[in-house]
Write a structure and sequence with these properties.
single chain, 271 residues, alpha/beta, globular
């Protein structure tokens, strides 16, 4: 495992945690709702030999503090990510997002198109969130909030949706344990974060502004996103590529790390 250097970037007295490892062109990784930056470790291990890999913990996730005042949308969080890059004197980078991280990545491109050279959106959707998804996520948050904890039954239910059906992987076990270990305070902060992810704006209407290489990735067994959404994104984004990852779910990069690493290297190298 590649050792990562841990850092914090302060915004309005709140610390945004990130890791920074490797040298070369910069890759900026953004995880999705309920995950943290450790989900990218298989990619960082493989890519940091040739790239500088920066992976954040979103607000209220991982080692980051709760959202700072004035955080009203994923647009704001994209601004925070760009401010972090500016603080590191990074003028250009490729951005790789998963789930909600894909929507934040798209907002970064819209805000600073000259700064983002390549975009990878995995297992995400940048249109309006379907109501059925909003209800499902909200039910999870409401149950945890009412109980002031994420009990084992709920944690297993959530984990089943993030990984391939009936997966018995160690990563799934670790993810389940992380959910059960959430404190009352962490759950309260995640409940404040969730509306930003669930009720994001429809950026599909704006993707005609995208002029950069774009890769759309989806696990074929994803239970949280649909192939139709992936096809819709590909249809709207001129010149974009769409790749399905077999035997992979919402965390395709964890389910099939070798396949995803090879795909990323090929895309980043321009093949």
């Amino acid at each position: 495992m590649t050792p990562s250097k841990s850092h914090c970037f302060n915004i309005n007295n709140q610390n945004l945690h990130f890791t920074d490892v490797g040298q070369g062109p910069v890759l900026f990784f953004i995880h999705g709702f309920l995950a943290d930056n450790t989900m990218w470790q298989p990619q960082i291990d493989a890519l940091s030999e040739h790239y500088r890999c920066i992976a954040i913990d979103l607000w209220s996730h991982g080692k980051s503090d709760p959202m700072p005042s004035g955080t009203t949308s994923l647009v704001t969080i994209a601004e925070h990510c760009l401010a972090l890059l500016a603080s590191l004197d990074i003028s250009q980078c490729s951005v790789i997002g998963n789930g909600t991280g894909s929507a934040i990545a798209a907002e970064m491109v819209l805000a600073k198109p000259a700064q983002i050279t390549k975009l990878v959106m995995a297992n995400g959707f940048i249109g309006f969130e379907p109501q059925v998804n909003c209800a499902k996520y909200q039910a999870w948050i409401d149950q945890a909030s009412q109980q002031n904890k994420c009990n084992e039954e709920l944690a297993i239910t959530v984990a089943e949706k993030f990984f391939t059906p009936n997966s018995q992987s160690e990563a799934k076990t670790v993810f389940t344990q992380q959910l059960t270990q959430l404190s009352k305070q962490q759950i309260e902060h995640l409940a404040l974060f969730s509306p930003l992810a669930l009720y994001k704006r429809d950026t599909l209407e704006l993707v005609e502004q995208f002029t950069l290489p774009c890769l759309i990735v989806i696990g074929e067994q994803n239970q949280l996103r649909t192939m139709l959404e992936a096809y819709l994104m590909q249809d709207c984004i001129t010149g974009s590529q769409l790749v399905q990852i077999a035997e992979a779910g919402h965390f395709a990069n964890i389910d099939q790390p070798t396949k995803v690493n090879q795909l990323l290297l090929s895309f980043l190298n321009g093949a």
